[in-house]
Design a protein that fits this description.
Length: about 140
């Protein structure tokens, strides 16, 4: 064993192990959206608000996958490269920002308020004053 250590065989293998460990960790990349891409995503969601509102009522795997795949595809055709998961997360964050701004008593104006309200209008109109979902015969 001392012979291998003297030759230097153990040190490079340790470096390789350390390198392998560091390579396994995915880099923490943050997805940055530009204004045009956000507007395109919101326009897409307005056109598909029926599916968006179905997502809000229950977790619908097939609707979910198709909706976000189609959104990513549309963005790609318009020169923006985002994954279906990134589109889904962006919509979730937009809704959260919208809810946060609406719950504040300050005069902060949410930039995409009209678009979000249009997308969610079908779902919001079913809510009563108490916030409980009304039962509709059509569903």
């Amino acid at each position: 064993m001392k012979i291998g250590h003297q030759i230097g065989l153990s040190e490079p293998s340790k470096e390789k192990e350390d390198k392998k460990i560091s390579e396994k960790k995915p880099p923490s990349c943050r997805c940055v959206w530009n204004e045009k891409s956000v507007e395109l995503l919101l326009s897409f969601l307005i056109k598909h608000k029926g599916e968006v509102n179905k997502l809000a009522t229950k977790r619908r795997g097939k609707i979910n996958t198709k909706l976000w795949d189609d959104a990513a595809s549309m963005l790609s055709k318009n020169g923006s490269k985002y994954t279906a998961k990134q589109c889904s997360i962006k919509w979730k964050n937009i809704k959260k920002d919208y809810d946060d701004k609406n719950n504040q008593s300050s005069n902060n104006i949410f930039r995409y308020k009209s678009e979000v309200e249009e997308i969610l209008s079908r779902n919001r109109s079913k809510l009563g004053l108490t916030g409980k979902r009304k039962m509709l015969d059509e569903e």
